[in-house]
Amino acid sequence: MLKTQPKRMCVACRGLFDKSDLLRIVRTPDGEVLLDRTGKKAGRGAYICDNPDCMRKCVKGKLLNKTFKVFLSEEVYGKLSEEYNAGKE
């Protein structure tokens, strides 16, 4: 019997993808928000496709505020964007 891959939704484009094809953004128990490339860090997770347009849409629309039910500053979104771009190089 084959094990099915879990599906997750991108917060930006709302597309349904295999969990392994998405990047996880995590809000840790102490309130820090960061890109979790391993997918294993403790905390509340949100997923985004590995597409620069989706990351731009997430930052511009401040989409993580609703997902994490907290207000995130421009600084946090800037840091996430930098982490994402650093992983692309």
Share in helix: 25-40%
Query: Ends: how far apart?
Result: 39 Å
Count of DSSP-assigned helices: 3
What is the structural class?
alpha+beta
Uncertain segments are none
Globular, elongated, flat, extended or rod-shaped: what is the shape?
globular
Mean pLDDT equals: 91
Notes on the structure:
By secondary structure, this protein is an alpha+beta fold. The protein has a single domain, classed as YlxR-like (Hypothetical Cytosolic Protein, Chain: A, 2-Layer Sandwich). It is 33% helix and 25% strand. The protein has three helices and five strands. Strands 4-3-5 form a three-stranded antiparallel beta sheet. β3 and β4 form a beta hairpin. α1 packs antiparallel against α3. The longest helix has 15 residues. The radius of gyration is 13 Å and the shape is globular. It starts with 6 loop residues before the first strand and ends with a helix. The model has no long low-confidence stretch (mean pLDDT 91).
Task: Name its key features.
89 residues; alpha+beta; Hypothetical Cytosolic Protein, Chain: A; 25% strand
Task: Offer a quick outline of the entry.
By secondary structure, this protein is of the alpha+beta class.
List the helices and strands and how they pair.
Blueprint (H helix, E strand, L loop, with lengths): L6 E3 L6 E3 L3 E6 L5 E4 L7 E6 L2 H9 L3 H5 L5 H15 L1
Antiparallel strand pairs: 1-2, 3-4, 3-5
Helix pairs in contact: 1-3
